[in-house]
Structure formats: C-alpha cells, structure tokens
UniProtKB/TrEMBL annotation:
InterPro entries: Amino_oxidase (IPR002937), FAD/NAD-bd_sf (IPR036188), Zeta_carotene_desat/Oxidored (IPR050464). The lineage of its organism: Bacteria, Pseudomonadati, Bacteroidota, Flavobacteriia, Flavobacteriales. It comes from the Bacteria. This is Amine oxidase domain-containing protein. PANTHER family: AMINE OXIDASE, PROTOPORPHYRINOGEN OXIDASE. The chain crosses the membrane at residues 359-379.
C-alpha cells in the first residue's frame, strides 16, 4: 500500500531524504511525498537568494570539500538527471564539473603573540586523479601515508610562492609518486645558484627519499597487523625527523617557521595515531569506538597524549575549532572557551588527507544555484510535492507507537488563479531562489501588507499572523513523518512530547547551537588593484583566496569573485566579491544587537584587519568605502548597501559538536515512534557536527531507516561512502 510521507522542512536533510526515497524505479507505487516549507525557498541553513542587481546573497560561506563523498555522489546524479530530462535547457552547467570550481589554496594564518603580528602559511593541497563522489574506500593506514605526503608538501611550500630571490621549485616528483595520484606542473627554479635554495632542496630530497622508505614499511602487512610496531615506528619517524630538522635548520637560512610547522604537523599526526590506538581501537574486535573519546574536548585529549603547548595553538588545530564555529560558545548568557568533541576533531584531521580531486570546491553559482535549486528541480520533476509558506507548529504527543496529528500554519494565500507557488527565477540560464518572496504570486492584500510592513516570513520572531491552519491526520493526510527542521524549533514544535519523553528532552537540552554572521562586499577594483599580490601569497593569478582562522569576528574570509559573471549588474559592476562569516558574539557585552551592531563590528574590523590582504583599500587608517559597488551617493549609504546577515533565528543557528553530547543525539530511526523519523545535522549520524556532507548523510540514513522498517528486502538501501 502506498504510504503518504510528510517532510517537515526543506533543508538539505529533508531534500536528501526525499531524493533517496525517490531514487528507485516506480517509487510512486510506494510513496506519496510532500515537503512542507516555511517561507518561499528551500535550503535551511544553506539558503541562498538573488537580491538587487541579481546579486547572490547567502546566509554564510558554503563550499564543498573533496571528502564530501555522499554529497558529491548526489550532485553528480542530479546534474546527469537534469541533462537527460532537459530540466534546465539554458543552463551553462551541462555537468557537475561545470558547476564546481576546484581550489587547492587555503591560508592558514597564524598570530605571533610576541610580535603582535599575523603571518600567512599558504597550503596548496596537491590535486589527485580521484573523482569526488566515487566509492573508493581508504583505510586508516593509507590516510596516514597520504597525511605524511601533505607534511612534505607543506615543507616544500607553495610552488607559486614569490620570494625576493625568485619563485620556489614545485613539489618534487617523489611526492607525486609516493603519496598521491597528483597532477602538479614542474616549475623552473629562478635562481639555482642561490646557496640557501641549493642546500634546502638537497635536504628536502634526502627527507623525501627517507620517508619513501619509511612509507614502504608502514604499508607492509606485518606493520599493519602489529599495532605496537606501527606506533613505535611512527615515534622513530617523528624523533628522527625532529633531530634532522634541528641540525639542518641552521643551513636553511630563515626557514624556522616552515620547520616549526612541519614539526607541529608531524606531532599532531603522531599524537592522534597514538591516542586512537590507545583509546579508540579495540585490537581484539578491530572496531574503532569513537564515542569512547567524545567526553573529551579535542585539545584536552591531545594533552592527554602528550601534545605540546605549541600544538594546542597550532593553526591546523585552530582550523578544526573555527571551521566548526566551535571557537567560542555563548550559551546560557556566558562566554566560554570554545570546545569540540575529541572524536570530531580527530576525524576532521584524518579527513584532510581523504579528499578526491581537489581539497576545496567552490559552487559556481552560489549554494542555491549550484546545489539546492538543481536538487529541488529534480525532486519536482520526479513528482515530489512542495508546499511553500507552510510552517510546522506542532507534532501532537501520542501515547502509542505512532504520531497521530500534525499542525501546520498557512502563512499566506496565493492568488486564486495560482495553484502552486513557483519559487524560482532564471538568471543567465540558472534556476535561483530569491531573497524575498515573489509577491506577484501572493494574494494582493496580503502582499501589500508584507511589503509595507517589511515582513520576514522566514523569521520565527515575526509578528505576522497565519492566514489559516491545517491539521494533518494519520491515515488520511500522512502515514509517515520526517522531522527535518533544525534542532531549536523542535523545542516548540514538539513541546508536548518533550515534556513527557526524557530522551527527547535530553536531546534538545544538550545539543548546543550558536548564532553566526555573514557579510558580503562587492568592490569595483580587482584583487591586484587592491594590492593583493598572488605571488607573495603563494597563489597563481586568477585564483581565489580563503582563510578560516583569521581575526575575530569575521575570521573566515573567502574571495567569491567568480560569481561576478553569474550575477546581473547593469551598472557599478564588481571586480571583487568577498564573503566573511564567523560566530555572532551575542553575549560579549555588545550593545544594540542586530544588524546595526553587525555593521558597527564590520566597520571597525575592516579598518583594522583587511590592510594585510588589500593594502590599497586603506586610506588614512580607514577602509575606503568608495571601493564598494552601489548606486548610492554617500559612503555610509554605500556601506549599508552591502549585505549583512545574522543567523540568530532558531531555524538558522549552527549545530555544534560539543564534548559529551553524542550520548544525547538520536539516530534517524530511533525516535520512539514507528512512523516518525529524524533528518538533520543534529541527529546521531557519525561525525556529529554541522556541515553539508553530514547533513546529506543524515538524510540518507533517514531514507534507509524507512526502507528497512517498511520495505525490507524490497527496496535497496544506499551505503554511505
């Protein structure tokens, strides 16, 4: 019998669940699926819209990493289906490769407390020949091998780094053969007669050859089977390299930063491996019990296994905290030192060397145009129904094994002649969401009020009253429910269940979230005109800078200038587009919370911090707001005309992975109700912190749970990559 499935929330998890359920031949014989979405667009915490001048406005900085295996698999299938069914005939993206831009560069900025200055360390992750989203399983030993390859790449430095004596030689061919299937071009040494470079390259060659022999031993059968031999060998590697570098450092000129970084990377790998085989790995069963270290903060766990003080502030460790918005925590009215579960930190470290193709992939038309709109197009074409402007308000408590009733507010009425809302506009052949609802499709009286009163139909704080409500009944309107909102709204949607169910109460009480911020600038000068020297920063011309661990509060900066050709500026066209994001400091004593406070933060931050990247953007110790693209007249108006976003709404707050919280997360199919399933980055899906790949995994697990429970041995379940 066909089952009606109601999905509450059209974020990535809800959309993925629907995709997996409909990824079967004749799925319509099994399901009737409806997605209920508050407001006018899908996407959740990754929502995107087009604003004035057709500019892309995001809620944060979103990229894919090369280890997003399940997300990439879905993306590849989606683009293939769009092309086969001609769903976007004018799109410039004929395949996923057109829509995703590889970028191997990451700035690991470091702060020198002694000299009170920042230093850059450009990491260039070698591209490899693996295809993202493919089922190539990599064992832990291979990750260690490739991780050491990254250490060598780090030691050699960026092949594009400009120095006073010329440019550095490319990563050696030994690296290509030894660690990766890489495609790295040879470059010519500008000053081969330079004594310092000659000695350095000689040393690097010796190190590479020595490590090649070590890796052969590491990957032999007997070392794989014997944990103690493996760890002892790594200790010898670390100690030997440390002694070698200390002796050779005096011959390398001013290379101490590089040597220190390599030593820290080796130390991090050693501490993690030793800790894993001490606390996580069961040699009798061969099972890794990651929950065994979830009660520890990552830094605390590193200390337990002998990490140096310097390692705790090492840029890679900081990257783990800042990249998961775990650098500070402002819950319960206090500011705390940031924390993240040790299991999450260790897994993130191992993921670094498990990327395919390229380490970072940019979304060529923003998150919406590249990922979410194509996915929604495919679902719509398959027959999934979408009910926009439908806000779930209550899942009624039930004292038996099935939920019996759901309440949903209808936010607006559509015009009488419109049967369903069309959420897309097509700009330059690409389907995109909009930053505001299309009022031309909404009842004219309601549309006028929304416009005049500046109503935000995506806000939980809005005073807008619903125009109606729906009470959905089990057996009539739904058989199964997928709860795919974020964690915070569940406190209100399911308050009756929470009051009677300790498991649910522990979940919502202990899984923490944090508000985040996003700022976007459009500038009328290029990076080069702003004073950014790609060579000095170790980059090729035309590539895009990004860093995740710079100065608070806008510590994550990404150049998005490739979006210029996707946007639709008629005047004042930008030549540089940048996004900044970070944790919103809601409890730091800042007055006048909200957008005015964020603008004040941004103004001060730009004056103090962007000169390092764009020296020509600062005049008289202030950022030159004449650089901003806008048809406004005054500098303050130009500044206000940029895009500022605070994600403090319960639906939009980022889900943290704080220590000791895995035990309170619930798996998708363990809700306590037979007909209710969870999907979202707040579930127990594995690497329990907020990121797009994890959200996709949760959606897959949700769909698999439904198939197991109701269609076991009939419908195939998708394995996670």
């Amino acid at each position: 019998m066909k089952k009606k499935i109601s999905i509450l929330g059209g974020g990535i998890a809800g959309l993925t669940s629907a995709y997996e359920l409909t990824n079967e031949d004749n799925w319509q014989d099994k399901y009737d699926i409806t997605i209920y979405q508050m407001g006018w667009r899908c996407g959740g915490k990754a929502a995107t819209g087009l604003g004035k001048n057709g500019r892309i406005e995001e809620v944060g900085v979103h990229i894919f990493q090369g280890w997003y295996h399940n997300a990439f698999r879905m993306v590849k299938e989606v683009y293939k289906e769009i092309e086969e069914n001609n769903l976007a005939p004018d799109t410039p993206f004929k395949s996923w490769r057109d829509a995703f831009i590889p970028n191997p560069y990451t700035f690991n900025t470091e702060y020198d407390k002694k000299n009170k200055s920042w230093h850059n360390w450009t990491m260039v992750f070698p591209n490899n020949t693996y295809t993202p989203g493919t089922a190539i399983q990599t064992d832990f030993f291979t990750l260690i091998k490739e991780g050491l390859g990254i250490v060598i790449a780090t030691l050699v430095g960026s092949p594009f780094q400009k120095k006073k004596n010329g440019k550095k030689k490319v990563i050696s061919k030994v690296l290509q053969k030894m660690f990766f299937k890489v495609n790295v071009p040879e470059r010519e040494e500008k000053n081969p007669e330079n004594k310092s470079n000659t000695i350095t390259n000689y040393i690097l060659g010796k190190v590479s050859k020595s490590l090649e022999l070590i890796i052969v031993k590491l990957t032999t059968y007997r070392y794989r089977k014997n944990k103690s031999i493996f760890i002892n060998l790594l200790v010898k590697v670390y100690r030997g390299l440390k002694n070698f570098f200390q002796i050779g450092a005096k011959h390398c000129g001013n290379k101490t930063k590089k040597l220190r970084r390599v030593l820290r990377m080796i130390e991090l790998g050693l501490v993690c491996v030793e800790g894993i085989y001490t606390d996580v790995y069961d040699s009798k069963t061969g099972i890794y019990n990651w929950d065994a270290i979830n009660d520890y903060d990552f830094r605390e766990w590193l200390c337990k296994h002998g990490a140096s003080r310097e390692l705790l502030e090492f840029s890679i460790v900081r990257f783990i905290y800042y990249g998961t918005f775990g650098n500070v925590y402002g819950g319960n009215g206090t500011i705390e030192q940031g924390k993240i579960g040790a299991d999450i930190g260790v897994k993130m470290v191992t993921k670094i060397s498990n990327y395919k193709g390229c380490f970072v992939w940019y979304l060529a038309a923003g998150t919406g145009g590249t990922f979410l709109a194509p996915l929604t197009l495919v679902l719509k074409n398959r027959g999934v129904k979408f009910e926009y402007f439908h806000k779930a308000t209550k899942i009624a408590y039930s004292d038996n094994e099935n939920i019996q009733e759901i309440e949903i507010d209808v936010q607006v009425d559509l015009k009488k002649e419109i049967s369903e809302y069309n959420p897309f506009i097509i700009q330059k052949g690409i389907h995109q969401w909009t930053s505001e609802p299309d009022l031309s499709q909404i009842d004219p009286v309601q549309a006028k009020r929304i416009e005049q009163e500046n109503i935000n139909l995506e806000s939980s704080f809005s005073d807008w009253k619903p125009v109606g409500s729906k009470i959905l009944k089990k057996g009539k309107d739904f058989d199964l429910i997928i709860l795919a909102t974020s964690i915070q709204p569940i406190k209100y949607i399911a308050k009756d269940i929470i009051s009677k169910n300790l498991q649910w109460k522990n979940m919502v009480d202990n899984i923490a979230t944090t508000p985040t911020l996003n700022v976007q600038f459009w500038l009328n000068k290029t990076d080069k005109e702003l004073g950014f020297d790609h060579g000095q920063w170790g980059m090729q011309e035309g590539q895009y800078a990004n860093t995740v661990i710079y100065e608070d509060y806008l510590y994550s900066w990404t150049s998005m200038s490739y979006l210029e050709k996707i946007e639709n500026w008629k005047n004042h066209e930008p030549h540089q587009i940048s996004y900044w994001c970070g944790v919103w400091p809601e409890n730091t004593g800042v007055k006048n919370h909200g957008i005015p406070a964020l603008k004040n933060h941004t103004h001060k931050w730009m004056n103090s911090n962007m000169e390092w990247f764009w020296p020509n953007a600062i005049k008289n110790d202030e950022f030159d707001y004449n650089l901003l693209c806008s048809n406004k007249e005054t500098l303050s108006e130009k500044f206000d005309d940029q895009f500022f976003q605070i994600n403090d709404d319960p639906t939009m707050q980022y889900v943290l992975g704080r220590p000791g919280t895995n035990q309170f997360r619930i798996k998708s199919d363990e809700t306590g109700y037979k007909n209710l399933f969870f999907a979202g980055d707040w579930t127990d899906f594995g690497l329990n912190v907020g990121y797009m790949e994890g959200t996709v995994q949760s959606g897959i697990q949700c769909a698999n749970g439904i198939k197991r429970r109701f269609y076991n041995n009939i419908l195939s379940q998708r394995n996670l990559l």
